Amino acid sequence: MHAQGQRRFCRNSKAGVISGALAWCQSLLSPAGLAHSLSLVCFLAQVILINVFLVQYLSSTVLLTMTIDVPLLLHLAWFWRVDSSYRAAPTQWFCYSWVHAAKVVVLFCRVMPRLTSSTPAVAEDVLRGSDFSINASYFQNLFSPTMLANLLLITPVFYALLMFRTSKAIFGSLSKRVTVDLIMHYDMLWHVVIDMVDQVDMFYYARLAEWVGSEALEQHKNSLVLIQTAVPFLLFFSMVLQAQAFPGVVTDKWSIPVETSASASGRRPSDMPPRLSVLSQGSAEQIEPTVRSSQTGQEALSRRPSHEISFSDRVSTGGVVHRKTTTGPGTERAWFERQERARRRRLQGVMNLIQRHNIIIARKRSAIASIFLIDIPFLTIRIWLWALLQHTYFPGLGIKNGLCIVLNVMQYTLVALASKESFKRIKREIAEYITRFHSGTLKEEAEGDSYGERSGQEEGEGGPPVDQSVSELMHQDSVPSLSASKEQAHQMKQALHKVGRDTARGVGICVYIFALTLAFAAGFIIAQGETVVELFIAWVQETIENQDQR
């Protein structure tokens, strides 16, 4: 028996592997599957070639980064299905951004200045070094500045492929319909891609002394050294925070009950009172009669005449259709299946709204990172260099910085408004979901505090008695009763309060910027401890001398 079980397990495993391989091959025929294959190729090519540069000009110790690159590659290859890309792609992009940012800083400081250009510079081509031109080197020479910079241009391609797969997972067939979040998704895509190209242009500033000319280098040596010192910090900051410019990396925390409605209330469907489904103008709303206990509902059902027990009795009045359901041997299962299907559909709709809301969150963060860590600092450096070079050179991407500052500031107001409206909509959808399928949870929470007050209000209002039969409730007027409407409004208010209490907003991007700044300051103090201490002592002595002179 054990041997037969092992053979059966081996056959099932082989069948699973074969079916998975066939599904992967079929996915290559789709745009999302092709994007997955291209992302693997881009990631593998960039990692291998960057490591070749690092090993050639530093040492083999840099291969320690493979401890992160290899698991990330396996993660990319494993989650190849489109429906899993929304969960997997944020982790992949976040890890890639941090490791890639560290590599870029090392390449800027230790590799790029040591590379030799394949074509000798001509006297009149002094300021050509920062342009994206393949004429600066021959492609047969791998270790050249242009080849290294072009290698970094794989990053925006990799980002675009991941964003494309994520859009297919979030929107699916709805990607052909124009919505606010769909527009923001692709708007964020091209903004971040342009910023990445701008970062690669700033990467050329590692060879600033080569293309500004010897005269400018002698006159403004300290200023040029300060520029080269600031650029790697800005590159690392901007690349690390661009990790948050992806849907799903930073999210709001929502508390959503996902168990079935029967298990949430702790009762079987037969123990629950009948539910009155109101269908009007494409909207569905459930009204549950209020009863003291499940025994009351069962006694009421037992008192119903036999001719009243039917699965579906429809009464149409005023364009509103009421569906009355009762319990029975087969009806209980059918009712539960309908409830579960409706609950799953509603829950899936809420999850899709949260995914779309994450796009807006990522767009807000990408705008802040672009303004304060890319466009403003890079434009400042370019204007400063333009002034140092006596107004003889101003790069074209400086115009991009000015335009993107204006565009991001103008769009940020709209993005913030869209985020606020999306957040309110999700809160209301979750509250409606809890009210409809998990009303027992709300009642349990409010039972200890407001049960006496609520019962007093019901007695004062003259509502239906607690032991009223369900048949009498079913044969009420076609218009929902005032007490039922008030009960539903009260539950909705409780649900909104519960959602607002359990929801946690994501940490602001300014917190990340502050934390990174503190980390850099601490690292600088540790690395330059003696210099910092000497400067601090000199500052203290100077302050004391100034006070004594006064």
Explain what this protein looks like in three dimensions.
The chain has 550 residues and is mainly alpha-helical. Helices cover 68% and strands 4% of the residues. It has 19 helices and four strands. The protein has helices at residues 2-27, 31-57, 66-78, 85-111, 145-152, 154-171, 180-203, 208-211, 214-219, 221-241, 261-265, 294-302, 331-388, 397-437, 439-461, 470-474, 482-502, 509-527, 529-549, and strands at residues 276-280, 283-287, 313-317, 320-324. Strands 2-1-4-3 form a four-stranded antiparallel beta sheet, with helices on one face. Strand 3 (313-317) and strand 4 form a beta hairpin. Helix 2 (31-57) packs antiparallel against helix 3 (66-78), helix 2 runs parallel beside helix 4 (85-111) and helix 3 (66-78) packs antiparallel against helix 4 (85-111). The chain is globular and about 90 Å long.
Helices and strands in order, then pairings?
Blueprint: H1 2-27, H2 31-57, H3 66-78, H4 85-111, H5 145-152, H6 154-171, H7 180-203, H8 208-211, H9 214-219, H10 221-241, H11 261-265, E1 276-280, E2 283-287, H12 294-302, E3 313-317, E4 320-324, H13 331-388, H14 397-437, H15 439-461, H16 470-474, H17 482-502, H18 509-527, H19 529-549
Antiparallel strand pairs: 1-2, 1-4, 3-4
Helix pairs in contact: 2-3, 2-4, 2-6, 3-4, 4-6, 4-10, 6-7, 7-10, 7-13, 7-14, 10-13, 13-14, 14-15, 14-17, 15-17
